[in-house]
Structures are given as C-alpha cells and as structure tokens.
Amino acid sequence: ARHRPAAGTHAGAMDFAELERKEGVRLSWNAWPSSRIEATRVVLPFGAICTPVKAMDGMPVLPYSPVVCTECSGVMNPYCHVDFHQKRWQCCLCNTGNSLPRNYHEINENNLPAELFPGYTTVEYQMENKNPRPPCFLIVLDTAMSAEELQDAKDSLGQLVALLPEECLVGLITFGATVTVHELCDGNAFPKSYVLRGTDDVTQERLKKLLNLELSPSEYASYDKQRGSAVAEASNALRRFILPVSECEFTLQTALDELRPDPFPREPGMRPFRATGVAIAAAQGLIAECHSAQGARVMVFTSGPCTMGPGSIVGRDMSETMRTHQDFNKGSAKHYKAASKFYNQLGIRLATHAHTLDVFACSLDQVGLAEMKTAVDQTGGVMVLAEQFGAEAFRSSLRRMFARDSSGALDMYFNATFSVFCTPHVMVCGGIGPMSALAVKSKSISENEVGMGQTTSWRICSLNSNTSVAVYYEIVNQHSNPIPSGTPFYLQFCVRYKRSNGEIRLRVMTVARRWAETSSSHDVVSGFDQEAAALLVARVSTFRIEHEETFDLLRWLDRTLIRVGTKFGEYAKDAPETFRMPGPFAIYPQFMFNLRRSQFLQTANNTPDETAFYRLMMGRETVLNSLIMIQPTLMSYTFNGPPMPVLLDVASIQPDCILLLDTFFMIVVHAGSTIAAWRKANYQDQPEHEAFRNLLAQPVADAATAMGGRCPTPRLVECDQGGSQARFLLAKLNPSATHNTSDASMPSYDRAVGGGSGGYDGAGGGAEIIFTDDISMNVFLQHLAKLAVQG
C-alpha cells in the first residue's frame, strides 16, 4: 500500500498566498474544530475561495479520463489510499473502496500515474469531445443614438471582430424601435434582414417561424434524419445568421458600415424608442436554436435605457426621471419589478442553454443595469460602464476581454460545471459567484443555505482565469463523536469546462487540512486567513443586501465583529484599554470598517446602475482584487526614497508628495499642493530638474501597469490637492481629521492599530481635513474594544 502525503503544512508556518498558488484555493480557516458546537464558536464562516481556471505553473495536463469514486463521484487524487496488491483504492472523501480500472493494473510504488504524485494535488484531464464547436459571439447593437456615437460603436465592433479567432461564429442584431436580425451569408447579392416588432417578447418557437428556421409539414414529411436535406440545410441558422468569422467578415463589416441611426421619429422632450428587452430575447432564441449547450455570448452594446416593450426601464417622456435608490426604498420605481422579472427569466433561458449575457453600457445616463444584473450574473457575463463608445477605457476593456493565453487561445472558457465534494463530517451550505445552481442532489447538502444552496454543483456559463467562486461549509460532526486532533480532512473542487478551441478539460483541485480539538486551539487561531475571511463575509453581505435593509445588515456585521473580538481578542475583562487582536486577526477589523463604508453597502452618491456593477464585480474577483475593492491601496511618492505604502488616512496627504490610490474601479494620482505648484511652473521641463520630472512620471507609469491587467479597465483620475477631483481620494480616506477634531498631529488610524510613525514625521499632519460626520477608524476600534471586553 502507498502512504498518503501530509495534509498541508503546520498552521503556524502557513503562507496562504503560496498555498493558493499551488492549489488554486484559499480557506478562511485552515484548521477546523471537530464538532458542530465548537464550530459555531468561531463566529466567522468556514468557506473556500476557489479560482477554477487559475493559471498555474507546472500543473500537469493528463490526456485521459479520471478515475471516479462509485459512491461520491469524487476523483482519485494523491490523498487516496491505494492497495497495489489488491488493485483497489480508497476514496479519501467518503472512505469507499473502489476497484482500479484495468488500465491501472500495472501501477506500483515506482510506476505511479500523475494524479497520484504527492505534489500533483491539482491536475487537469483532457476529456474527449466528439463534436468540437467554436464559441459564438452574437452582437446586439443599439442604433438609437447620434450618427457620431454610432460611428464610434461601429469602429469598436470592427476592432472586436478583428480580435476574434477566424473559426469563431459571429452574428448581428440591431435594434431601435424595431429589432433587425441580419443574414450574413455570402450567397445572396443582397443579404436579407428580418424586422421584428419591438413591443412583444419573442420566444424561441416564435422566432423559428418568423425567421423561417423550421420546415413546412410537407418538407418535414420527406426529411431524412440520417442524410438531411438541401431545404433543411438552406434554412439552418448556422448557414444564414451565424457564421464563422472567416466566411462572413466582409458581409458583417458591410452590414455595419451601412447602419444608420434608427429612423423612427423622435419628438422634442421624448426619449428615443429603444426595444432592448426584445432584442436580447431575439438573440437568446437565435443562439438557443443553433448553438445550444455550446459556448456563446450575447453581447449587448447600448447607449440608453429600454423605453418600449418588455424590459422597459423608464417611459419615453423625459419628464419621468430615471429611478434612484430613494425610489427603490419608497417602492415608487414603477417599472423596476416588471423589468427585473423579465430580465431574470431571460437569464434563466440563457443559463439553461449555457449562454452568457454581456452588457456594454456607453452612456452618460443609466441604461438599466440594476434590472439586468441578475441575468448577467447568473450567466457569468460582464458589465462595462463607459461614457461613450469612443472612450479608450471602453476599447481597452474589449481588448482585455479577448486577450489570448500562452497557447494562443482566448482567455475565455465556456459551459463550465463547478462541483464540490467533502468528507462526511462536513456539509455544503451554498456558493456565491457568477453562476446558477444545478438540481444535483447529494448527502452533503446542508439545510442552512448561504448564497445559492441546496446543491453541490453549479453551472458557470462563462469564466476566465480570474473568476473566483466562494463556497460555504458547515461542520456537522456531533460533539459526542470526537475526531482526534491532527486527523486530516479533505475537500475537492472539480470544474469541467470548454476552451475556445473546442477542447474539454476537467480540473480537479484537492486540498487537505487538519481537524483541531476546540475552537480556541492554537492551530485554529494561527490558521486563520483574515483576507479570505473578509472576502467571504463581504460576498455574503453583498448577496444579502439585495433582499435586506442596509441598517439590519450593518448591525449584523457589527455584532459579528464584536463576537470575534470577544472570542479571539486578548484583553482583561472590562478593561478596553488592554484590548488587542492577535496577529492572524490584526487587520480584520480594518477590513470590516472599510467594508461598512464601501460602495457595496452604501448607496449614497451612486446610481442603481453603478451599485449593480460594483456588486457584480465583488461576486467574482480573486481575493487580492476583492481586497483592493474593500480596502484600497495607497502609495506615496516623494524625493526621499522609493515609493512606499502609506495608511489609508487623511494624514497621508502631504504637500510635497504624490499619492497613488487604487480602488480597483478607479486609480487616482493625487499631487500635493507644493508638487502641483512646481508642475504648473513647468519645473519638469527644465534640464536641471530631471528628478522632479521622474517623480511626476513614476506614479502615472505605475497606474498604467495596474490598469493593464484588469477588465473592465479602471478609470484614471489625475488631480491636485484642493482640486474638485480630489474628492475621489478624500471619499476613501479614513477621516481622522475633520472639521470637528482638534488634534490631528498623528493619524488616529496609526494610533489605533498600535503602529509607529507609519511613514509620517508628524510635522505636516493635519494639513488636510475632511468635512464629514462619519466616524474615524480610531473611534470605530474604541467602540469595538469597549463592547468586546464586556463579553
């Protein structure tokens, strides 16, 4: 028999980022209490952040199918016990014995298959695909805009088509007051266009009749299913509306060039007719008819809200304003419920066929992303917000979206099934991510639902190498059935997905951790990953806030943090001044302080569309990117040395430094007042001030580097201290110095976390204040200490 590899490293020596690099998974707790009672005492969720198709160096790709457990369907991995003499293996997840397949009978300790190598806990299998088909991209373009805007949109779409591999399928639908489905076949000198009314929903069956995609009764009677027929071939949507780029690029470009703004008359004081809902429904029906269960994206390019037909966001009369968060709170957004229901049903129809909805909104006004969010999210689609189609941020987002990986294929994966397996002492509460639940029954399903529960498998219609899924667990082992401390347990994550070249892969990630006796044991505390835990809590919060009052959710966050402080803090009872959080928990309160203030939970100064976009991104990004969204990074550039991180505090603003704020969605380059004055005096143009010229250039170059790897591309803001756009920086800083405080010589944020000078000399502190009634980090931590020590 073969011995299993060790279950991870000792918790005290854990490098969580290194573990993620090897396994593609991060756990909030890396040692778990062995009973349900002890598990409830740790307060914070047991969960994992899994990046299913993360680019991993050295991961083997095996050209055969996996060996699967007959009981739990888990995949054989290095932690499984193998008996070479009996030709059997024992599943590490459910302890079921299985026979090895015939082609494995020659294996022994010196002749192991790759999936049993101790270092290969994450492997990928190359599955057989008898019918490889390339992905389909169906462009749905709004024409209810000015000629200049439409030209910019057409130029961007030309760029998009040029980015697509030649074998990819493409189609075109345009809409305004009506919806037009364009034929792209080369056979006709004058390709046809089918015009649909913009006032009625279009189902797949109805669309087949309208586009002549079905055979007549007499044609059907003579149809031979084995050989087909010329009539059926000619009417096939894949020969008329959706064709490979290599066959229809000229016809598509001609159709785009000939597009004109929607000719439907528009009266003064009225919004244009725009049938967005019907256009998406038509696109869904078309690709469902010809490309079901294959990778496909419906890419909607729109410049305004839907004003007619199902899915309308607002009426045409401009005296009716777009809905706001206040309208949602009062229940006075009259179109919201009906529109959300319509788009949700469209999302279900798309997800059923494994198709994705993307929305590219290029408008100064809202377009209805709040109503479309669920449909985009459950199909794994993207949202891109920009002011106009000609904006560089929009075009660079398109380029990033269609970037290639190291093999030359698109960094875009389709029709994935994400499944999780666990040991009998653990159950799955649910998952949160850009996916939809599948009706898969299992003994591992918990009654306590978190996110999308009641299943252990989810469909992800589209994903990329940064897409991350949060999975939540519950420990169900009874206190009366103790598990010896140090005993390993196992979790497995499997994702079956399709690459853009038609190849099907199955990635299997197996992680091993250890049981601990109690919730207070050293292994539990030292194995706490505060970054992963903060993201798991943030995802639950953004999921729940869609259905709960903000006040109730903030109170839940506060009570949870107080319980964490009471459980794990070090203090003398009823002595707040002695309170401190141990090392593994040291910055967790900061994450919660910034999460409470973030745009995910606070809706002031954001439109419903912007809020929907922010929450959508929080539900899918990696741990590192999500932490930047929750707690932005702040770098300081001075003449005194290399760039260095500084506290996210108003005291970090100094006249003689440049600050670089990265919020993930926006990057702000903020020049202090002295630096700005020198720049306005053009010192950087003088040969003797090369150091100043380099100081001005470095933060802009670093901002461009950060923007280079993100999709959607962040907005870049360059501003000066005291300028109007400095508000983007001030809104994110800890208000340690406000119009109500007197002592700001040292940032209270710094005092609160018990640090030293933190890069401040104290001399320039208090030069800037924030006019706000929000509490500072110092006050927040004082209240936490006061309430935690009472426990």
The 3D shape can be described as: globular
Which segments are poorly predicted (pLDDT under 50) over 5 or more consecutive residues?
223-233, 743-766
Structural class: alpha+beta
**The biggest beta sheet, please?**
8 strands, mixed
End-to-end CA span:
51 Å
For this entry, what is the oligomeric state of its chains?
A: single chain
Gyration radius, to the nearest Å?
29 Å
Q: Would you report the number of β strands?
A: 30
Mean pLDDT: 91
- Tell me what portion of residues adopts beta-strand conformation: 15-25%
Helix content: 25-40%
Number of helices: 24
Describe this structure in words.
With 791 residues, this protein is an alpha+beta fold. Helices cover 30% and strands 21% of the residues. Strands 2, 4, 8, 17, 19, 20, 22 and 23 form an eight-stranded mixed beta sheet that branches. Strands 9, 10, 11, 12, 13, 14, 15 and 16 form an eight-stranded mixed beta sheet that branches. The protein has a five-stranded mixed beta sheet with strand order 27-26-28-29-30. Helix 3 (147-163) packs antiparallel against helix 8 (245-257) and helix 15 packs across helix 19 (623-630). The radius of gyration is 29 Å and the shape is globular. Mean pLDDT is 91; it is low at 223-233 and 743-766.
